[in-house]
Amino acid sequence: MKTISKIKGEFLKGKLVFLRSDLNSAVINGNVLISERIKEGAKTIRFLKKRGAKVVVVAHQGKFGKPDLVSLKQHSKLLNKYVKIKFVSDTVGEKAIKEIKNLKPGKALLLENVRFLKDELYPEKKNNRILKLASTMDIYVNDAFSNSHRNHTSMVIPKYLPKIPSYVGLLFEQEIKALKKIKLNKCLYVLGGAKPEDNILLLKPSKRKPSRKNKILSCGLFGQICLIAKGKNLGAQNKYMQKNVSNYKKALNEIKKIIRNKSIKKNLETPVDFAVKIKGRRKELPLEEFPSKYEIFDIGEKTIKRYVTEIKKAKAIFMKGPAGFCTDKNFRKGTKEILNAIANNKGFSIIGGGHLNDAIRECKVSRRKFNHISLSGGALLRYIAGEKLPGLEALKKSSHLTFNPIKN
Description:
This protein is an alpha/beta fold and 408 residues long. It has two domains: 4-177 and 388-397, Phosphoglycerate kinase, N-terminal domain (Rossmann fold, 3-Layer(aba) Sandwich); 182-375, 3-Layer(aba) Sandwich (Rossmann fold), CATH 3.40.50.1260. 36% of the residues lie in helices and 16% in strands. The chain has a six-stranded parallel beta sheet, sandwiched between helices.
């Protein structure tokens, strides 16, 4: 596929570039925290600026109707630590258009949060203002692989404006290259975290057929819901998940249905012990002592040893989500031991998801020991599960993009 890294500098000089970045970061009490996405996103902006392009950055923050749907003004301040860029408190209005017209070669603008606009949700909408803005550009660059599973206007520009040359950015290219190196149908999955509905995608049979033969080590809330699906009552933890896991009943019923397949059930490993909190301290209990009045915070020592043994044998590993409550150092053990085992494995490894990125830092595991640490969550999982990503499909349809699908 065509990437901006292969473009000669002269081609970009003076060109207006519509750059779709992903700067989405954690927001605590209204404050946007610095993230790897911001740091990595700055690289593509800097690359385009150095080659004399007029860079117009479009990005999102937060979900529609959620507290983290905030302005990108703070993001611009964080971005400016790595690359000089001007923030415009407008996305498609007169102010934004004026700033774009006055933009000089080698300069960059960050427009306001694209998710402030309903046009972003409906690319087929008549007189879509985002498409109208994009039509004035010379080049479209998608650097937001992590958002490519969304059928949002800024992600599918090539589908509606196929005559505009389309490329992928440096971060997008990095993600795709990593996926090319891993043999998905021979991969060990270590699936944890607090979103069981995402992990379910890898249990289902798909065109790439990773789900029937692949060994899956379940942990986190996902491991617990898998145990419940197998008929185990965990006690207090059942009630916790019913209250705190979104679409709990739907996820539970889906897993029950999926594991009726004997091959999948056979390859789905579940924890054999857990760590609970008693008077503020870690206490490990075997599965036989459940249901318990105590809530679960981590996997136990026996589970850790079993999982580490499987990791040592694996030729390729994909891990998504922590094994326990990593913000508490007393319940970081499961995640840390698994991460260390993957780091010491000689096979190819991909670590995915924002929470696991944080866990790597908290567990003080060297990032360099992993082949690739993805900044994508939902998009990466859906890709591995064999689903089509609207952002990628749009790039395929561009008359200016030659796309070679990844084969495994």
